[in-house]
Design goal:
The chain is an alpha/beta fold and 274 residues long. The chain is built from nine helices and twelve strands. The radius of gyration is 20 Å and the shape is elongated. The strands form two sheets. The protein has a seven-stranded parallel beta sheet with strand order 3-2-1-4-5-6-12, sandwiched between helices. The protein has a five-stranded mixed beta sheet with strand order 8-9-7-10-11, covered by helices on one side. Strand 2, helix 2 and strand 3 form a beta-alpha-beta unit. The chain binds nicotinamide-adenine-dinucleotide (NAD). Nicotinamide-adenine-dinucleotide binds next to helix 1.
Length: 274
């Protein structure tokens, strides 16, 4: 079988934190070629070399605010931008029938419905946490919750840097959803957040959350299953933000040649869902 040419990727949001990381990783990986770098109209990085923005020597790819020509010549778009921008790129990916990797968070139901409509025409892979380790962890948590009865209490703790403004983290909620799915219950009706004061005994079958904040911790999540006389705990530590970009690139490669549909990192990793 003839070898595939390297996958031509367009990074949208190329001047952002994730965009710059993606540009750097793409340039290091022979399976990919950076074929375009797009920013929002009005960005003062338009016209800059994407390599220089990423702290590399020039790559000869100039940041543009005109996505059409670069998308027409690409195999995929890697998108860590904003919900509205992601919808606009979803339409373009659908027209061009190329892979769309969506790492953008904060998508509301209306965004998700339109994204699903676009996914009828191309492969869209979306996850609020593209890290391979967290997605593996979610799958393990789901299986553990299924295997261990409700007499095992589930507590999810997360640690993040002092600048984080929301709690529990989206990833803690993703892990809570996985535990709830394993138990066949709805998380919304069974979660306990932030105990304080005279709380009474623990509510049987609930899933507890606690958040710690401090220093420069990138992100640590623990899911504890506490039974009578024994405990099992799962821990994920993010050491570097490149884990999200690596996951996004793995998703892009996986999506190449894939039939249209809305996929997740669970699909990319081939993790069992039952
Ligand atoms: P950032 O603000 O540093 O970067 C976003 C970039 O998108 C900016 O440069 C902005 O100018 C650009 N942008 C906005 N509108 C655009 C448009 N129409 N076209 C092109 N570019 C546009 O943010 P970030 O830290 O890189 O994160 C970006 C998104 O990715 C956020 O939603 C964040 O929560 C999410 N994120 C997801 C994961 C994951 O694993 N899924 C990991 C990290 C961040």
């Amino acid at each position: 079988m003839a070898e595939l040419e390297p996958m031509r990727l367009v990074v949208v949001g190329a001047a952002g934190r994730m965009g710059r990381t993606l540009v750097r990783l793409i340039s290091e990986e022979p399976a990919f070629v950076l074929s375009g770098a797009v920013e929002r109209p009005g960005s003062d990085q338009i016209g800059a070399d994407a390599g220089i923005l990423a702290g590399l020597p020039p790559l000869g790819v100039v940041v543009t605010d005109d996505p059409l020509p670069v998308i027409a010549a690409a195999h995929g778009i890697v998108d860590f931008t904003t919900p509205d921008a992601t919808l606009a790129y979803a339409e373009l990916a659908a027209q061009a029938r190329i892979v769309h990797v969506v790492g953008t968070t904060g998508l509301q139901d209306a965004h998700l419905a339109r994204l699903a409509a676009c996914a009828r025409h191309c492969a869209v892979i979306r996850s609020g946490n593209m890290s391979l380790g967290v997605n593996l962890l979610a799958s393990l948590v789901r299986r553990a919750a299924q295997a261990l009865g409700t007499d095992w209490d589930i507590e999810i703790t997360e640690l993040h840097h002092r600048h984080k403004v929301d709690a529990p983290s989206g990833t803690a909620l993703l892990l809570g959803e996985a535990a709830a799915a394993g138990r066949g219950i709805a998380l919304a009706e069974n979660s306990e957040r932030g105990r304080d004061g005279i709380t009474g005994p623990r509510r049987a079958g609930s899933i507890g959350f606690a958040a710690l904040r401090g220093g420069s911790i990138i992100g640590e999540h623990q899911v504890l299953f506490a039974g009578e006389g024994e405990q099992v705990s799962f821990v994920h530590r993010a050491e570097d933000r490149t884990i999200f970009a690596r996951g996004g690139l793995r998703a892009a490669l996986w999506g190449r040649g894939r039939k249209p549909g809305l996929y997740s990192m669970v699909d990319v990793l081939g993790l069992p869902v039952d």
